Amino acid sequence: MSNVRSLFATCLFVSAAAFPVTAQEEGDLARAAQNPIADLISLPFQNNTAFDWGPQGGTLNVLNIQPVLPFTLSDGVNLITRTILPVVTQPELSPGQGSKTGLGDLTFTAFFSPRNAGSVTWGAGPVVLIPTATNDRLGTNKWGVGPSAVVLTIAGRWVAGALASQVWSFAGSGDSDVSSFLAQPFINLNLENGWYLVTAPIWTANWKASEGNKWTIPMGGGAGKVFAIGSQPINANAQLYYNVARPDFVGRWSSRFQVQLLFPKG
Q1: Mean pLDDT score of the chain, rounded to an integer?
Q2: Buried (b) or exposed (e) across 215-244, using 16+ Cβ within 10 A?
Q3: Burial 157-171 (b: 16+ CB within 10 A, else e)
Q4: Which of 120, 121, 168, 198 has its CA 20 to 30 A from that of 3?
Q5: 92-95 — which CB contacts under 8 Å span 24+ positions?
Q6: How far apart (Å, rounded) are the C-alpha atoms in residues 176 and 50?
Q7: Is the dihedral of CA 190, 191, 193, 197 positive or negative?
Q8: How far is Cα 239 from Cα 256, in angstroms, rounded to an integer?
Q9: How many angstroms from the chain centroid is the CA of residue 36?
Q10: pLDDT tens string 226-259
Q11: What span, in angstroms and rounded, lies between the C-alpha atoms of 114 and 78?
């Protein structure tokens, strides 16, 4: 995944003289990129690295490719679709087993959201788990479905809200049923020249795990910037998280690097 980190570094630290977008445009794009249900086409590449992971204390890397496509259903309703396809590199789980790299399970979410919301906006819809993993170690071999919702507010420099979903398996050849919960609170403070501070931890619960191993609760955050290379707007950020609650064999620290291509309308 060194190429992903190199791309991120190039995007984040390239000279401001090369950016043709105005400060106002940078701020507007930053707020739109931070809104999961914005009427904005985007293509994020989100690289998550978990350290000291597994019984051998290896490094787990997950690159999420997650295109976001909005659709106008009527004068009052948008449909915002988000697809997450993970590319997983999992360390060996026992001596001599070796690591494994491939696709994980795909998650598809569709949010129905009002087009003309007030200071607080929301979206809700189904989330679907699709067993696309290329190896049994990298996925569940289960189909799943459940509800998902997001609520947020944009007030001046602040964008804050939370996203949550619950998935239950209903078919598939996997040995274990799936009952998993995800919550992502997020707070963004937008600064000058497209810079911002962010915390957006992903809290998860595996309801099928044993007591004491259900929750993973990271806390932390980082910083990012919206800029452009040529005519292409880009949102890039780096974050660091510490797990205040975690299952056995999950380490304390994780990092996130994201490069998000933005395609504003008009």
Answers
A1: 91
A2: bbbbebbbebbbbbeeeebbbbbbbebebe
A3: eebbbbbbbbbebee
A4: 198
A5: 92/54, 92/56, 92/58, 93/54, 93/55, 93/56, 93/137, 94/55, 94/56, 95/56
A6: 24
A7: negative
A8: 5
A9: 10
A10: 999 999 999 999 999 999 999 999 999 999 999 9
A11: 6
pTM score above 0.70: yes
CA-closest candidate to residue 224, choices 82, 31, 41: 31
Q: Return the residue matching tokens 């929301």.
A: 122
Whole-angstrom distance, CA of residue 141 vs CA of residue 164: 23
Q: Two tokens at 244?
A: 């205040």
The model's pLDDT over 154-181, given as tens digits with 9 standing for 90+, comes to 999 999 999 999 999 999 998 889 999 9
Check if the beta carbon of residue 91 is closer than 8 Å to that of residue 60: yes
